[in-house]
Amino acid sequence: MSLPSASNVVLASTVVGAVYFAYRAITRTPSPGHLPPGPKPLPFLGNALQMPTSNHPQTFREWASVYGDIVYVRIFGQPMVIIDSLQAARDLLDKRSSIYSDRPRFVLFSELMGWHSASTHVRYGPRFRKHRRFINQMFNSRAVSAFLPLQQKERLTVMEGLLVSPEAFLDHFRRCAAATILKITYGHEVHSVDDQFIHLAERAATLTVQSGSPAATLVDFFPALRHIPTWAPFVSFKKQALETREAVNAMMAVPYELVKSEMKTGVAIPSYTSSLLESRANPLDGSVLPEDEEDIRGSAGTLYAAAEETTLAYLHTFVLAMVLHPEVLKKAQAEMDRVVGNHRLPTMEDQESLPYFECVLKEVLRWNPVVPLGMPHRLMEDDYYRDFVIPKNSTVLVNIYSILQDCANSDKFYPERYLEDESLPDPKNIIFGFGRRICPGRFLADSTVFLTLAALTALFDISPACDSEGNPTMPEIEYAVGFVSHPKHFNCSIKPRSESVLSLIKDSKLEHPSVQ
User: Fold this and answer.
1) 407 is annotated as contributing to ligand binding
2) I need a surface site. Which of 339, 361, 381, 399 has the fewest CB within 10 A?
């Protein structure tokens, strides 16, 4: 989440008379009751100038240490609540999900960019429930087992790629994440990281992050700004949003239209999109209602974009953690060798027999949660919690990063903490969100990550890259944070643990013909 500088706030506010609207919002009759504590606001602007321009989770965590686990701020009259404890998140977003399952208005993204069809941005109601039914049919805990052959194929492709060009490990991960969800969502086969659809998603994701976070941009607090022409001063956000709109629309429309075209010629591969189009088609002429088409296209595009970006960040963070903590990798490899041996690759059936490796995966999520602030919720009516009121229309954020830091020696990467303290919450039950907005693709994500990283651990050693004199160079722990928290670029060494790795991969292909 990012806000403009103080000078830009004042200038932009002057352009549209925003102070007037802020004044009206602030001086209206407030809801009765005691508001949660928070930083002292300024007249008109509220807490806008106190909002951080970077490292938001850490700033919000510092606020929580002063004001408590429910922090209240106002930005140009718009109320925002930041939740900093797992108990409060579950009490409100899980137990009272019927009133916390809406999304904020996202003026910039919804009205200007046309994201109203994306399932994560659909307002809570009948249409949202229809989207969830679409997705749950294919991605519930039982249904995802049908994707195991595909996941096995893609992880073998990653392992082969690491043998040939280990320095391009991030490209191999990107191709794997994209290939898995593209095949499932559109039936599209990916053969390299240069695939057109991968480029479409990467461009849309990059521009979206650069545009700022929904419910945090200036136009979300002053909707009148969306009417200013692009040539006016101080509205670079709108020019950037128009560019982002084109990228997002292309990401959603191009693969969708390809599926429709292939269905007409009878060559479409069964997929999420083709199955939904078939189920919604008029039996007389094969047509699909425009509103159904919009929902199918939007939910498919959202699945694709969300799955690729978060999976890539998780895999990337794992490698960084192993480079920095070789003792953890060695311990995980020793467990892998005892349970799996060196004649096959680990499978989902091995998951329960690899408790330390599971703790490593949990610690990776705790150390750098891929979506540190989750996606914002919107409160649909006044709510009363503890001894205060949370006003209707509040934007509600959960500081997932801070919640996962609530443990002993939180700065230390220490997987054993989950073996030594059973009371610690499983990060997998936190990072996917809460209530009726919990990520529907979480079961697919969990199995994809496990299979890929278990094979990587079993087959390869990961260590720091060396400089020109042969000395190891340790990477810095730095993240590029937008919606998704990615490690910044670093170099490392990835080498096969033995000369038998190639033959083991080939044997695995022969044993599983379905992954050819």
Assistant:
1) no
2) 381
